Amino acid sequence: MEQLEGKIAFITGGASGIGLGMARALLAEGMKVSLADWSDDHLAKAREALAGNNAAFFVKANVADRDNLRAAVDQTLAHFGKIHVLANNAGVNGGGTAASPDFDDWDRALAVNLGGVVNGTKIVAPIIRAQGEGGHIVNTSSMAGVVPLPGLAAYSTAKYAVRGFSESLRMQLAPKGIGVSCLFPGATRTAIVPLPEDDPSIDEQNAPQFLKDLWEAMRGAIDPLDTGRAVVDAIRENKFYIFTNREFLEEVKQRHREIEDAFPQDEPTAGRVKFEGMRAEMVRNLMAPGNRPSASENKADMALDLASKSPAGGQ
């Protein structure tokens, strides 16, 4: 999607942090932007920050509530007429650890961090497709969807899932002329990690060293506007991966080496090699950076159904 001027974007979690950074960057490209957010405070501050900009529209939305989100999308369509770019960016922190007995916080975190991405896509992607003008979808994962972060099991679970969902979505929508990118931010100046100087209730002096180190990292975090500009570049160039924090590079390389070293040494059968080779080639073509597929109404979505069913109580 090389031409952005005059197009319309819908951004969840759009009134603060990375979402607001995306909005500012897209507005600077001449786009019209609907900033959807659940926080009245964030919406009020965003309205003030973008006062006088008629290309910005503000709407309250709960991404975990499908009817509520659909209503926000309908309000955007009523105001702007179309949506060309969807940014599923809304997110919450917390959710608990993997082995804790609590379900409520876990369910809430997944409902927003994963369910919000799924809901936004399933509501807006058909609209973009029906317009027949191409478009782009950006899903916000996290470096927590690439490397482990201690004590953030619910958050990491959702962010890893967003990565897999986005890969599948890119392959599905590529033949329709719609691009998909996945954003993996690290330390970014957002409200999701409040600093002691921003929240008087935080006792910095008696906090664990891990939190102190996190706060120090956040003080040198990436500007959300720079992240927004990286998103603009990815949309224009149809790049899937958007990374913003180079400090993770060596850890990612090491993890990839460990994965490669874990593969068995025995040679696979010729049939397996042939089948997986064909699959891998298809994936490479669909995931290739910068691919410019043209929309085709004659191609149905590819769905692989192996007609297999799990036995009762099985996996």
Fill in the keyword field for this structure.
2 domains, 45% helix, alpha/beta, 10 helices, 7 strands, 315 residues, Rossmann fold, 11% strand
What does this structure look like?
This protein is of the alpha/beta class and 315 residues long. The protein folds into two domains: 8-186 and 222-287, NAD(P)-binding Rossmann-like Domain (Rossmann fold); 191-220, no CATH class. The chain is built from ten helices and seven strands. A seven-stranded parallel sheet has the order 3-2-1-4-5-6-7, with helices on both faces. Helix 6 (153-173) links the parallel strand 5 (135-140) and strand 6. The longest helix is centred in the middle third of the chain and has 21 residues, at 153-173. The two termini are 41 Å apart.
Helix percent band: 40-55%
Distance between the termini: 41 Å
* CATH-defined superfamily of the largest domain: NAD(P)-binding Rossmann-like Domain
CATH class of the largest domain: Alpha Beta
How can the largest sheet be summarized? Answer: 7 strands, parallel
Average pLDDT for all residues: 91
Q: What is the chain-wise order of helices and strands?
A: EHEHEHEHHEHEHHEHH
Which CATH architecture of the largest domain would you pick? 3-Layer(aba) Sandwich
Enumerate the spans where pLDDT stays under 50 for 5 or more consecutive residues.
none
Instruction: Determine the CATH topology of the largest domain.
Output: Rossmann fold
Number of domains: 2
The share of residues in extended strands comes to 5-15%
The coarse overall form would be globular
Total number of helical segments? 10
Q: Please give the order of strands in the largest beta sheet.
A: 3-2-1-4-5-6-7
In terms of structural class, how would the helical and strand content be classed?
alpha/beta
Gyration radius (Cα, Å) is: 21 Å
Record field, number of beta strands: 7
